[in-house]
Amino acid sequence: MTIEERIIAQFMEKIARDKSIPRDTLRRIEALWKQGQLKNADAVLDAIRQGASAHGENPTS
Amino acid sequence: MVRIRRLDVRGFRGVQQERSLLFDGKSILLFGENGSGKSSFVDALEKLFTGRVSTLERIQGLSSDRHGPHIRNAGTSPRVQLTFSDAASTAFASDTSPDALPDPIKDYVHCAQENLYILRRRQVLQFIGSQPSERYAQLRPFLPLSGIDDMERALRATRDRAEAIANDARLAFGRLATNLRRDLKLPPSNEPPTEGEAVLAVSRTLEELKQPAICSPEDFEGALQNLDAALAPFGDLSRQSDIASAARVLGELREAVPINAIEELSSALKAMRAKEAEEARVFYEAVLDQGARWIEEEGRNTCPLCEQRITPETTIATARLRLVAMQQLLELRGRARAAHAQAQHVFRAAIEGIERAVKQLAILNSQDRGGSDDLLSRINGTLAEGLAALSVELREVSTEAIDKAREAVGTDAALRQDVAAEEERLQQVLQSLPSPEVAKALVSVRDTIRRVKEAWAELGAARGRMSKAEADLLVASRLQEDAQAARKEEVQRIFDELSEDINTLYTSLHPDENHGGIRLEVRDIGQGSANLRSTFYDRTDEDPRGYYSDAHLDTLGVSIFLALRRWYRRQRPNFDLLVLDDVLTSVDVQHAVRLSELLLREFKDYQLLVTTHDRIWFEHLRDIQARCRVANSFINKIIHKWSIDDGPDISEPEDERTDLERLLAGGSAHEIAAMAGRLFEHLLQEMRYSLRLSVEAKRGEQYEIGDLWPALYKAVRKNYPTLYNAGHQVLEALDVRWPVRNWIGAHWNQWAQNIPRTDAIEFAGAVKELFDVLFCSSCRRFVSPSATPLGQLACRCGKKVYAAPGKQAVLPKTRADLVKETQGAFREAGLDTTLYLAWKSAEARGEH
């Protein structure tokens, strides 16, 4: 595992534990990671805004 | 494992003629005095791999391109080429594309391009002395995190944009809240009104208009319906406004009738005309004035014009009276002119007032208009006729015109009553209609409640948008923070790993000293910064610069570099190059021995290029190579001298001896003398170091045969009789013949052209013989004084020994061996420095 891979893995673990991030947003961020799109600010913002529908939900659900 | 076989340099830095460092896959220890060109090889390596020499780029005004080539290398490009030790002996030069290289060498070159393998003396303290952010920047090449940088940049941009969206939403919500409070006449505040405040404010307004109050925002619509119902009896509210405007315009018209103007014109005109009739004669003001002055000033009694006799007093009085009359006439004309202009103006203004009244009355319905149209038409006709009569030059204004205008005014005066009656009629119509003020208030409240109703509905949506944008911002911020924390944790883990190794290295250099605990930390603030902390006695978590001596900072600097280099090696095991350019001499003597041993022990699996300008350290490192059992993997090279036209001389004495043998067979006298001279100078330089020859100091330490030979000859005769006895014939021969080298080998002398070749051969033979006396071909070292017994000379391996006078030859021992063997005896004898010196003095005197 390279240093970068370790950092990304740690990052994904952190956001998975982060209660302030809606689950739907988390899923979208994970999908972006797999697509190598975490360097794309537009895609990340879209993921946050689309996942924002989950704001009304219990973020831990 | 890919290693360097040879490095060829030409025309670069201090190397003019082509010079080669032959690594042959081994490490090289390179000695050369300051300015002898050692660093040129280091610079050449860096230039080859990275295209630049970092030490030149860091200084303003210097550049690798300008200052890299040799100063006499006009026109030709510098040449640097590396040959690798692979089966194909792959060569890599500055014009070689790395893509064309075999994969292992391509990988090697790629690593070398990151330039993390060279430590120069001047860079030792660079890392320690840097600011945390600069220090982090220096560590960044060791941390390949470009992908993470990209991700963090994107997350930062995401957060910034989410913040901008949230700010927009907050501002929109704030604007809405402000407008709502203003409409509800509530005190200004950034907060929107509460539901209770809004309901109360609207209810209060409704009650002022005798409208039912509301109980909740849901009642807004009902309140609007009530207001519409209250406004229904007003019908079209524009009728009141139009009638009021028409009445106002008629009032203005009534006041605009030009009675006074025409009366003034009539009066002024009559006065002017009467005066004109009275003063019907032509007179000239200038003639009267000047004539009266002549008569008066010159006392004339004749007319100045006709020369007839006059009575001066009478004539002057008459002239003065006529001048007064003329002034009065001019004033009357001015008054009439002004009255004429004013009369025209007021007639025109009255006609314009009629046009406005006509336009305004045309808006009214026919019932409201009544007989206004006819009235206005009549007034317009008489005023237009009067204006036409007045619209001529003043002198042409006739009595008829005045009468006509007066008639118009008179008619108008009569019409004024009709206008006033019409105005009064319109006012009565207006009075009969519902109050426009009440309607206006109702309309205003209705508009306000409509706005409040819309804003109230929008407020909820805006609040929702703001909440969502703030929630998005929170998520974006958390993503950025989590990414930053993940990077910092991983970098700190690497720093911890590095810190541990730095401590291992540093502690091995400073055993039993109460400091260390070196720690690299990622600072909590900022994007990337590295703190360097340490322990010093009972002080912990301190910047080492605060307490460490320069010597300790030096070794710390070296330890940090070596730890980084070792960490990088773990990531890229196939890249094993390590270059230390004159670093050892930056470390104090006490610790340099340990550093040397550490280097050869801990980095023996690296291909090293270690340079030093200190001959003692060079010899010391050679000794340590044997002790660390790495002598076979080292090549020890000496730069004998440097010249601007050639560069560093790195030839081996054995090679020079072989070349001399070849020349003795067929070379010219000049060639033989030159090569013999070169070997002679070479061995004299070596003996200067090993016998510590006493030579008169010269600027730049550029000693030549003439300086060195007398010192060697004298020292051998005086201090080393055994050696003198073994080589006395050749020593005596050379004492006579050494100038031959200069006569025919080094300089052009006309008279020396006739020196026979046999003389050159004899000189060369003597040099060769002296070389064999002083140089051991087994250990490839010149003889040097043994530590004990005093006065003995021996090579390193002991095959060539010249015993001390009166003593048996013994195998040479190193200082370390002696210390080891005698340590216990010294301790038991209670020896101190004074006794030790006394013992050495006795040994020198041959006592026991």
Describe this structure in words.
The complex is a heterodimer of chains A (about 60) and B (about 850). With about 60 residues, chain A is mainly α. Chain A is about 60% helix and about 0% strand. Chain A has one domain. The longest helix of chain A has 15 residues. Chain B has 5 domains: about 190 residues, Rossmann fold (3-Layer(aba) Sandwich); about 130 residues, no CATH class; about 200 residues, no CATH class; about 160 residues, no CATH class; about 35 residues, no CATH class. Chain B is about 60% helix and about 10% strand. The radius of gyration of chain B is 59 Å and the shape is elongated.
Mean pLDDT, all residues of chain B: 83
Proportion of residues in helical segments of chain B? 55-70%
* Total individual domains of chain B: 5
Low-confidence region ranges of chain A: 54-61
Oligomer: heterodimer
Element order of chain A: H for helix, E for strand? HHH
Helical content band of chain A: 55-70%
What is the radius of gyration of chain A computed over CA atoms, rounded to a whole number of angstroms? 12 Å
Please identify the structural class of chain A as seen in this structure.
Answer: mainly alpha
Total number of distinct structural domains of chain A: 1
Shape of chain A: flat
Beta strands of chain A, count: 0
**Which chains make the largest contact?**
A-B, 27 and 31 residues
Distance between the termini of chain A: 32 Å
Number of helices of chain B: 28
Provide the β-strand percentage band of chain B.
5-15%
Mean pLDDT of chain A: 84
